[in-house]
Amino acid sequence: MICLQKNIFTLFIIVTLSLLAGCSKTTIDEIPSYIAIDTTSINVASLQGTASQKISDTWVYADNELIGAFEVPAQFPVLKNGSSELSIFAGIRLNGINETRAPYPFYEKITRTVNLEREKITDLGHLKFSYVVGTKFAWQEDFEQANLSIDSTARSEVNLVRTRMTSELAAAFPFEMNEWAAKIVIPDDSLVFECASHDSYKLPTTGTSVFLEMNYKSNNSFTVGLIVNGSVTSQKSVLVINPSETWNKIYINLTPSVSASSGATSFKVFLSAMKNTNVPKAEIYFDNFKLLHF
User: Fold this and answer.
1) Furthest C-alpha separation in the chain
2) What is the CATH number of the domain that holds 53?
3) Are strands 150-152 and 136-141 parallel, antiparallel or unpaired?
């Protein structure tokens, strides 16, 4: 009987200590402050093209410490109090893929000094990014001028045409309004479409970032790639882009393909497509090409 009482008392002590441990108070250092970011855009200078962008999230540092990457609009906790210097980088989906998110190297970070207060929200509101000083715009095409810098190749059985934005087409364009875009129609399964930039461009092959920005709308998949000029000329496919019923913005990472071409003297951008079998007539629209590097 005495042994049983001892066991019950020991069990009581264990349960009591467990409950007390579970009721321990939160320390002041564990009470977060909060930061909110509402919307984002980019500010473009002269000769930098349109302000179309698809910033998907922001990468936030507080006093050089990474707080995290947050999809916009965002509200997130920070275990800091008082004056803090924030560094905010614009995040994108590399090659349009949700799982490959990263800060975009050509958008300048935004720095803000804020006074954080525990349990209170510091609302940063709208953030307007800009291109990093020193960004080189090797090639741009917005189809606003009749003299185009990209056109169908000799291999293509379908022509790229410059088309005026109809009210229906423009209504689905969520970016800065353009009057013109490029249009490709592929009516038959056996037809091949291909276009390429007229000029060749010198791009860094040392691992420096090289990206192609573009807007597109398509009911058909298509391929984006590079024509590599050197001792021999070769053609490299970089990315197959899936259909998008509405206008979309994509950031295509050309860096690995360019870096793998160390003997190249210059590059052209090409796009190609054949009609998907499940599509009665392929219709592809392009606009706002920007080829960027440092």
Assistant:
1) 102
2) 2.60.40.10
3) unpaired
Looking at the fold, whether 261 and 147 belong to one and the same domain comes out as: yes
Same domain, 36 and 57: yes
Tell me the CA distances in angstroms from 42 to 45, 114, 135, 136, 237, one per residue in order: 10, 22, 14, 17, 29
Domain boundary among 105, 130, 155: 130
User: What's the predicted TM-score (pTM) here?
Assistant: 0.89
Give me 200's structure tokens.
């060749």
Q: Three-class SS of residue 3?
A: helix
CA 138 to CA 152: how far, in whole Å?
A: 20
Using one digit for the tens of pLDDT, what is the confidence trace for 201-248?
999 999 999 999 999 999 999 999 999 999 999 999 999 999 999 999
Q: Which amino acid is at 165?
A: M
Strand order in the sheet with 33-37: 74-78, 33-37, 121-123
Q: Are residues 120 and 249 in the same domain?
A: no
Say which residue, 96 or 13, is predicted with more confidence.
96
Instruction: Return phi, psi of residue 233, to 5°.
Output: -100, 130
Alpha-carbon torsion angle 34, 37, 43, 49, nearest 10: 130
Interacting residues of 237 by C-beta distance below 8 A, sequence separation 6+: 223, 224, 225
Residue at token pair 């391929």: 223
Contact, 193 vs 229, CB < 8 A? no
Containing structural domain, residue 42: 28-130
- Say if CB 185 and CB 137 are below 8 A apart: no
